[in-house]
Amino acid sequence: xxxxxxxxxxxxxxxxxxxxxxxxxxxxxxxxxxxxxxxxxxxxxxxxxxxxxxxxxxxxxxxxxxxxxxxxxxxxxxxxxxxxxxxxxxxxxxxxxxxxxxxxxxxxxxxxxxxxxxxxxxxxxxxxxxxxxxxxxxxxxxxxxxxxxxxxxxxxxxxxxxxxxxxxxxxxxxxxxxxxxxxxxxxxxxxxxxxxxxxxxxxxxxxxxxxxxxxxxxxxxxxxxxxxxxxxxxxxxxxxxxxxxxxxxxxxxxxxxxxxxxxxxxxxxxxxxxxxxxxxxxxxxxxxx
Length: 289
What we know:
CATH topology of the largest domain: Rossmann fold
Helix content: 40-55%
Oligomer: single chain
CATH superfamily of the largest domain: NAD(P)-binding Rossmann-like Domain
Strand order of the largest sheet: 1-11-8-7-5-6
CATH architecture of the largest domain: 3-Layer(aba) Sandwich
Number of strands: 11
Distance between the termini: 60 Å
Order of helices and strands: EHEHEHEHHHEHEHEEEEHEH
Radius of gyration: 19 Å
């Protein structure tokens, strides 16, 4: 059986970093605004979890709930207000949004310096144009790197396959990995070349939200398998990877739940503190000069 990559253990390590970096802010608690639109039960659950974990670490959360039938302009006005609010260091819009909302427009309306998910076009441009990726990166991408570091996975000269529905996510993750010396194929789940590419991959990452999509016949023996996709089915939370089918073929594998999910929440909160520290430094220099 492949060794389990314990997301909870990685979350604890990230939380220690967050607590250490919080000391640089003095008495002030960083402010995280979370915008929840609609009535998706999984989104409500995720927002509640993020708020709970933030409170444990000493991060102030402000949750704004909007009905899915609301005029999008009302949400844009709220984001504009949060952009101007000095008590708010980071803004998160819980995705996915109801179909009536323009997700790209909502994300573009966030002040890039407060964009904790780092998918604003300005932040994506930094991520995709350099290998420094700015001072923070999208939480899931950061977690993937943390997990690979945790298992001492040497990327140089290896082959990766990223299965993704989102072109932005696939390209962003590919860039971050390629900067560390690994070759990456980004595949759509319905692509005709998927099986050929996945079977060659030393590292297989899936982020499509299709329960048990990845079977053992898609995985190279001895590969590292990271399951980013999460689907809530009643009371159960399922991943893209058929864990029981794949676990004996993989060298390392993430479970769902208990894998990428908890670590991503912790990375999001670490980002919040880093954005607060960045703002503090900018305010210091603006006063100095």
